[in-house]
Structure formats: structure tokens, C-alpha cells
Known about the structure:
The complex is a heterotrimer. Chain A is built from eleven helices and no strands. Chain A has helices at 3-17, 28-45, 47-50, 82-117, 119-133, 140-149, 153-180, 183-190, 195-231, 243-251, 259-288. By secondary structure, chain B is of the alpha/beta class. Chain B has a domain at 296-305 and 313-542: Rossmann fold (3-Layer(aba) Sandwich). In chain B, strands 7-8-9-3-10-11 form a six-stranded mixed sheet, sandwiched between helices. Chain C is mainly alpha-helical. Chain C folds into two domains: 2-84, no CATH class; 91-306, MetI-like fold. Chains A and C meet through helix 1, helix 5, helix 6, helix 9 and helix 10 of A and helix 1, helix 6, helix 7, helix 8 and helix 11 of C.
Amino acid sequence: MSDLEVQAELSDRAARSSQPGRPRRIGAAEGVAGVLALFLVVAAAWPQLLAPGDPLGIDPLSAFQPPTLAHGFGTDESGRDIYTRILHGTQYSLLIGAAATAIGLGLGIVLGTLAGMLGRVVDFTVNRFLEVLFAFPGLLLALLIIVIYGPGVVTATIAVGLSTAPGYARIIRAQLISVRSTAFVEAATVLGRTRWQILLRHILPNTLAPLFVLATLGIGQAIVWAATLSYLGLGAEPPTAEWGAMLSAGRTYITSAWWMSFFPGLFIVLTIVTATVLGRSIDRRMRHA
Amino acid sequence: MSMTEPAAALTVRNLRVGFRADPVVRGVSFEIARGECLAIVGESGSGKSVTARSLLGLAGANARVSADRLELAGRNVLGLTDRAWRARRGKDVGLVLQDALVSLDPLRPIGREIADSLRLHTTLGAAARARRVLELLDAVGLPDPARQVQKLSGQLSGGERQRALIAAAIALDPPLLIADEPTTALDVTVQAQILALLEQITRAGTAVLLISHDLAVVSRIADRVAVMHDGLLVETGSSRQVLGSPRREQTRRMVAAIPADKPRGTRLSLTLRAADAPSPPRVPIPSAVPPASTAVLEAIGLSRSFRRPDGSRHLAVDDVSFALQRGTTLGIVGESGSGKTTTARLLLALLAPERGEVRVFGEPWSAASEKTRRGLRPSVGAIYQDALGSFDPRWSVAEILTDALGLLQRRRAPLTTARLVTLLDEVGLAAAVLPRRPLELSGGQRQRVGIARALAARPEILICDEPVSSLDVSVQAQVLDLLDDLQRERGLSLIFISHDLGVVQHVSDEIAVMRAGCLVESGPAARVFAAPQHPYSMQLLAAVPRLSA
Amino acid sequence: MIGRVAARLGGAVFVLWAVASITFFAVRLIPGDPAQAVLGGPGSQASPEALAMVRNEYGFDQPVLVQYLAQLGRLATGDLGRSYALNQDVGPLVLSQLGGTLLLAVLALALAWLLALALAAWSTRGGTVAARVGSGLETVAAALPHFWLATSLIVVFSIWLGVFPPVSTGGATGLVLPVLTLAIPLAGFLGQIMRESLLLALESPFVLSARSRGESERGVLWTHALRHASLPAISLSGWAFGSLISGAVVVETIFARPGLGRTLLNAVTLRDVPMVIGVVMIVAVVYILMTLLTDAATRLADPRLRLS
């Protein structure tokens, strides 16, 4: 099992146990998550709109200010406004998360499709290979990759992407195999459809649709892992306004300036909760719609 | 309070149960005497299960239960606290549910499940409880009790499980036993055995309340039958009276829907008419297409085996041969594990036989390549038990049917909605279902869409695998009538696979009886039913629930 | 039974061999001269003689296949090589760090189980409001990154309240915050899965049967439902243990606790390749053992699996 598979399993259970009655009604949690997602996207695309200041602008006179009206989230050791930095950092975090997810998902699709479509020998080989990769739990595979290629934002992003790929691959493979053996695929054979028609009209659409849910859930995971690597000094580096790097910088001043660590982390948590709630909501809607 | 009826094990006066604003049971009154069996019969949603659960105080946390009188063994149980209810459950009333595989805790040995009531209500020690469990298992007719107590419900057969569940319910010899669909998932022969056991329990002096959707089944043992419809008991009377001369429309429809013993061609579904109108005559409609002696589909010495998890091979279909004549129906009947479904898959060439072959219109079918077969595929349609699962969940009814018609119009000429509407009309559906997804339809509607899809390609042969098994009796009657009409209009040849001998008897011209992969008997339906040759056919036939009271 | 065990062990040996091979060949991908890396990386300006000596000592001048077989041979005898940075044998060094991490992971796993069970049992019995609160708490808990949770716990419990030390110096009090950091997010995951399966069990016909025999709500929970609810969570424990070890990298670093995670991070930062491989191999062994244990525990808890 990988983190991603656990996420997918949880989402699946939640979708199955939910009442199919009123799928179109938007719950409170979904509403809040929607607003937050919108806020994050705006912050990533046009940070100036929400935080007009300069994220790198130094003002030594107002260093280490606790949260006040002027600086809602306080200031850091160089007097930079933390709120401004967090908002301007949104694009880093989202971009890293999206890029890593794209790498993982892309590789996962290739491996999963190979295993699910090309017969037993390929399936067996790919499966054993994935099993071996699962023996590097969590961040370990990413750390191994960083030791080979050296630290940095790009390496960290690739490392996170590669280490999530086995999870995607296994879910895609399982999905392909289960769709392939459904009654509606059999019914299409009985109607006289060819293998290609069945593949294009039934198997691929029914396999790929859930990937959207998976990617939403996975992006949250990728953001945490990338931030963790930055926090450990292996990814983005200060003074970049990346959230993990900001937390890492705040670590030195934790006894005196808690806000330096607290607010960037809070945004990471909000992003992940948003991704989880939205992913599950899409999952539920796709099943009951 | 109930001095006037000392023998009543249960008295219910004006019972009402509602969930939020929704009344489900709307004023129900009945009583059961000791040694009597009352059956409440109704379709899904009629409120029969909720009634049964209210009698145990288990209607649910958000149910509002009220009644003028509700007495168990002569003692009032209205408004009991949960604690007081717990003291009565198991002791004054026992409950048997459908399918013991899920009604007994699958993680605990059956012996412990049965001993639970003894542990909760008596001061018996462990050894005494164990002895009593063995006695109970013996009493319900489970062979070799000492070995069975250690087993999990998953290790027992369907019939053994149901016996164990009954043993758990009667452990304290409660004056009232409620059995909610106790035989529904069982094979007919096992069903007959379980009914006999319930009858024996009634004879021993217990009051039995039987809840079922199947009038024919319960009439075998019930002294009185109450028909429930939309939260009300519409008719109560002796089994003979209710089945023989039903007074109410709902009852008449239910009786008419029972397929067994009705000659082929008799309509099973009655359209609603004024309550005082006489029930329509049951006239057998002669078959429009006289059976010609041309085989459209032949199975010749079919065999197919599967690998078991332990590596050994299990012969699912063993040297099966039969022929389907043009314009007729061949019914294949058998209990679970008889190889019916494997046969269906072999006939549809979804599975290749290991020996033997299938021929369609005299041409090779199973032996041909899928490419050659594809040209002939439109002639061979299929209807499945799980209609919902046979539709792509992303597609609407319109898309499903357009796709099914597509094979005839390869160049995707603009398909007019008119063609879809005609197709729907043929299966008795309105155009309003076109934009809906199968998930949003009822079970009967789904099966009609499934039939429409099969008809779209203008097939000559239809292979129906348990097409009505998951439907309510009245819906089953409508679907069977529909198939019958279509057969006459289009001259279809049908393979009709079912576990339900009553249904098969009603629809078939020829019958093939399967058991453990082998064809034990086949021949004209009338002959097989009148004079079965094989002992297994006789046994099956004896177990079929009939109306003849 | 014996066949099954043999198959599982065979699979484990295969995975270990593959892990060793992948790490060996992955290290060959490192750009530059490995001898240079031994002597402190490209910036160290080592003399050609020193480089030659290192090459000879570590076998870098041999053909790759010979090096690979030699490496496998050494691994088979438990020799994990020498650390570049510390110039010590990796094997004993890594083993000495294993205990601390295992203690942390086991305690966190146990605490997460307790928290998850308690939350699931409470939220399924307390009506819709409790169910929503429970589900919300679990979702948020599962989203907490270890590094942020750790710093927040330090701020509150060490700096503001002064109850627990911010640095894990031996003693039991030093363990509280690291264990909490690892346990809370895991409890979020386990709790979600337990609550779903508990609700499923409580609505199942066998629970209705039990109630019809006069079983109390507490009896239903303890004799039936909790056992069913814990099955999926038990089968997740292998994954959970892996993610705890991964989390230990962060937690041990923040709380300055000796252990595998911190050793690994130091080795990664210094690009001490044999050390990284050593830790990864040990983690793989522990992880595989945990997966086997999880498998055994699942079969123990679910008698149905023992039948087939």
C-alpha cells in the first residue's frame, strides 16, 4: 500500500457509504472547500490582487513583529510580511504539487496500462517491480533520488513525482482490470463490438474518469511531501517564499516568533483539507450522478 | 388486559410506524394464537419488514411507533424503555432474517451465536449452554451438531446456515417467532426443508409470523395470510380463501402473478380495474408461431471446467447437449452450482468450451473466430439478471439504445428520437426515461431497457439468464408477459435460464433440468412436469410452491 | 500452510535482492567519480594518489558486474560497507539506531490505534453531530504535516506551557511530543477507515440478529461491531508502519532524537552513499517483516481467511 492508495480507499469508502439520495446538494464542508480552492487559485495566479506588498521586501525596523493589524500574520527576521510571503508562495507550492502529480500520474498511467492491458507476463513483471518500490515507504524513495541527483527544487519535485508513481500505477492497473471484467463490457461483446471499440468506448473512459479524483487527492499529498523536503533543506531554499522553506526558516526563531512557523503550515493544512474534501466530493458525485 | 384472548401470542391493534413525515405502516391490526402461523405478504416497500421490526422494538432510532394495543404473550410492550425491551427480545420473541450468511456474525462460530441468547437471559453455566446448543442444533435438524458448533457461518451451506439461525432464535423457546423472508435466497429444495422446519415449530405450539414477498411459498405452511399493500393490511383470511377467492384487487393481482401451474400464454399481469370488476378469464393464448422442427441453436456435448483456488479442477458443465427450435422457448432449470450460468456464457461464446461445440443456424459458433462470429452476433441477443451492471454507468438510456441500434447503421445516420421511442414503446416504457441513467430507474424499468437493448439489433435468438430473479412478483409478471408478447410478435427463439421452476414451467415449450453440471432430464415441458423421469426432477417438482391449496 | 509461508519468505527475499540491486545501480548513476565522493566530493581537491588508493580499496577499478556480485556477497553476510563520512562500518552503526526508531514507531502506532478506536466508537454513537465532528477531526488530523504538527506542539507544550521538553533527551517525558506528532495524523487515517467500517457493521443484518436476541448496545459494539471495524485498519498497519518510519526522518530531526531517520537525513545531506543504502536496506527489511506480521495479524483477526 502507498499513501495514495490509502487516500483512494478512504475516498471510495466515503463515497460508497454516502446516501445516494441528494447528490446535487452542496454540503457546508464542500462549500467552504470550494471557496478556499478559489482563494488559493487566485492567490497562485494573481498574488498581487490579494497581497499587494513585496514578498522579498526587507524592512529591518519591523522584524519579528507578532500578528497585528498592519501585519496580520506577523513579520519574519528581516521584517518581511508573512501574509504577503505566504500568498506569493502559493504558486510555488501549487506548481510543485501539480508538477509532481503530473509526473507521478503520467508514469503511473504508463506502468498501470502496460500491466493491465498487455497480458500476464508484463503484468507479473510490472507488479513485482512495483512491489519492490513499495519497500521504500513514504519519503524514502524520494530521499534516495535526492542523494543521487543532489538537492534542489527541481530534483525534489521529480523525486516526489517518481515516488508517487507506483501508487498511481497500481490503482490504474486495478481499475483497468476491474472495468475489463464488468458485465457491461461483456454485454458490448455480445452486441458484436470489436476489442478496439470496447476499449475506446467503455474501458478507457471508465478507467480515466476516476483519475481526476485521484489527482485531486494526490496533489495534496505531493504538496506536503515537497514541503517536507524543503523543510529538511533538500528542496526549495530560503528566502524563496515556498511554504516548507518558510517553515524551515522559522524553525530557528521558534522560541520567540511562533507565527513564522505557524501560518505557512496552516496554509499547507488548509490546502490538503481542501484537496481531500473536493476530491471526495467529486468522487461521490461521479458515482451517484 | 387481554383476558378475553388468553391464547394470543401477539396482539396488534392499529399499529402505525413513520419515519419523519413519512408514514410507512398506517394502522395495522392482527393477532396470532399459539400454534398458529400467520403470513404477511407484500411487495418491497409495502411496510411488512418495518411491521415485523416494530414488534421487537427495533424499527430504528428515528422511527415513530404508535398503536392502540401491542401485546407480546399477553403483556403490553408499548412504550417500553430500551432496557425493558432487551429483557423481552430473544425471550418472548425471536427473529429469523433472510440469508444467514450475513445474519449470523461471519467472524464467530455458530455455536457462540446460538449460545448468546442463553448467556443474556439465563444463568446457565458454559457447560450447560454448550449442551443446550447441541440439543437445539439437533432439534433444527442439523446433522452432527458437535462438529458444526465450531464452524463459521461461511463454512455451512445455505440451508445449514438458515437452520442455525433458526436455532439461535428459538434458543429460549419464545412464544412468538418472527421469520422475515426466511427462505428467499435458498434453492427450492432447501426452501421446502426450511418451511417444513418452521411448520414443525408451529405444530410444537409456537406462534409463527412469516413475512414474505412470495404468496405461493408462504401458503404452503401459513394457516392465515394477510396481504399488505402501501402500509395497510388489505385482506386477511385463511390461505385457501386468499389464494382461491381473493376479494381485493391487490390480492388478485398478486395471485395472478404466480407463474406456476398457469398454462403457457396465460397473462400474469392484470391491469388495474375497478375493484368490483370480475377477474379476467385465464385463457391460454395459443402460440402464434407453430413450433417448426428447425434447430436455431444447438449445444453438442458441451464441457467446461474451472480451476479451484487449491489447483484442482471443477467440472462446471459436463457433456451437455440440447437444441433450441425456431420460435420456441427452451427452459433450463437448476439450483445454484448446477452450471446454468456457465452454460449461458458458453452459448453466448463469452467462454470457450473445452469439449463439444455450439452451433447457430447450423453454422459453427463456438468454434468460429470472434471475427467471423461478430457478423452473426446481432442475431443472438442476451438479457441478464443484473441489468444495472450490464449498462455502462456513464451512459443514459438514450445513449445505450443508440449504441445498440448503431450496429445496424454503421454510417451513423442521424438517429431520430422516433426510433428510440418506438423501441421503448415495444417494451412498455415512456420516452421520459431517455435522458435518465439506469441508476435512476426502478428494477423493472432497468430490465425493460435491457430487453430493448437486446431487441435493437433485431435478434432471432434471445438468451435470458435469470431475467426476473431480482424483481418483485408483480414486476416479474409484467416482464414475463412482455417476453411472451415479443416472442409471438417477432417469432423469437428463447433460452430461458432460471432457478425458479414455476417461472420456467410457465414460459417453456421444452425443459432441460441441470444438476451439478449435468443435464439430468430434458423434454417437452408438459411431459417433464406431468411425468418426470429422473429422481432429481421429481424432487425439484415436489418442492415447487403451488397455488393448489 | 507451510507452502504459503515459504512463498511469502521467497517473495521477501526477492524484494530484498531487488532493493539491493536497484540501490547498487542507482548509485552508479551518480555523476562524477565515486572515489571523489569518498574523499569529500568534488570540492575536496584530493590528490591522484589518494583517489587511486580509494579506488583500489573500494573496488571501483573492477568491472561493474564484479562490483555488483561482490556487493551482493557482502550484503548476504550482513556487511553493509563503510560510511564515507564517518569512516565506520555501516551495519553496526545503523543497527544501533534502529531501536530508537522502532520504539517511536511502535508507541505511535499503539497510540494512533487507541485514539482512532475511541473517536470512531464515540462518533458513531453520538448521533449526526458527533459523526460530523468526528469525521471533520479525522480529515484535518490526516492532513497535518509532521513538521508543522511537531513545531506547533513544541510551541504550545514546551515554550508556552513548559510541560514537555522540546528536545528528546532520553527519558519518558521526552517521548511524549514525538509520539504525539507521529500518532495524530495516523489516527486521522485509521479513524476514518474504522468509522466507516463500524457504521457498516452496525447496520448489517447480523447486528440486527444480535439485537433481536436481547444484546445491549455495548454488547453489540464489543462482541460484534468493533471486531469487524478493526479488520480493515489491521490490514493497513503495514502501510502505517512504513509511513511512521518515513515520518521519523522529520520527527527525529526536529526533536534531535537519535534514530534511523535522523541518520538517514544526515547521510542524504552529506551524500554518504553507503550509509544511505544501509539505512534503506534496514528499513526495507523492517518494512517487509512488518508486512508479513500484518498479514499474520489479519489472518488471526479474521477466521474466514484461515479456512481457504
